Structure prediction request, 227 residues.
Amino acid sequence: MRRQLRLIPVLVIAAVALLGIKVSDLWLAVEAQAALPDISPQAGGNDPAPKPTPTEAAPSAKTAPPVPQAKAEPTPDPMMMSPSEIDTLQKLAERRQALERRAQELAEQEVLLKAASQRLDEKLASLKTLEKDLGATAAKQDAADDERMKSVVKIYETMKPHDAARILEQLDMAVVLNVFERMKEAKAAPILAAMDAAKAKTVTAGLAQRRQQRAGNAPQQVSAQPQ
Prediction:
């Protein structure tokens, strides 16, 4: 117990000495900080970093030499030109104006030709449509005429041969031939036999000629005059 009491003063003295050393070190640090120059930025300011001096700046890369530009040719002075040169320039200017006018005329003619070609195409299309319509109409007309002729033929076939021959002798030869062409042979033979001999001969020759024409062998036209 006594030994512990003796150690307490020693510990107190050591602690005081150690605290003195720490305080002296702290004071030396404060004095050293105060001796340094103030390099802190001003409050609220954003000054840029100091620029390096010319001696500190890095050497710049070598710049390429400037490219020499082509010198524009001077405009000829009319006062320094000879009369022949002036005359040549005037002719060239007139020629250029003539070519420009010709080019403009050709462009206008091209536009007109395109418009005319378009109108021609439209007319051709219209004519083709009209031709098609006319062909259809003609075909319908031929079909209608054929149907009417068939009805006439049927009438003559039902008549007595002598009566049919007497009527057919008074008709035009083209009509008579159309009737006989569409008539059955069994019906046409008695009617043809009852007709006048000269008329019957002409009808027979006309029918033969038509058949040969349909076969593609057109013979010499047979005279319709009775012999």
User: Anything to note?
Assistant: The radius of gyration is 65 Å. Residues 86-146 form one domain. Confidence is low (pLDDT under 50) at residues 39-48, 52-61, 221-227.
